[in-house]
Amino acid sequence: xxxxxxxxxxxxxxxxxxxxxxxxxxxxxxxxxxxxxxxxxxxxxxxxxxxxxxxxxxxxxxxxxxxxxxxxxxxxxxxxxxxxxxxxxxxxxx
Length: 94
Fold this sequence. Notes:
By secondary structure, the chain is an all-alpha fold.
């Protein structure tokens, strides 16, 4: 159950940041720099860091030690964000 909650939390957070209306000013701010613009619009990049964040809060008891768990959660978050984002119809993407 924790794993499923982790996957949905990562995907939801990434989609809100990448294409949500409330985060449009944040995307505009990050888009001013070349690195930040690529980061804020890339589900793989953003999914990795969001996966580390949500993995710590949701699945911290499942995978010790912390550095292996952080990397694994980042990879899982990146993969699920990319897969689900690529299945979205174009009308939902910005």
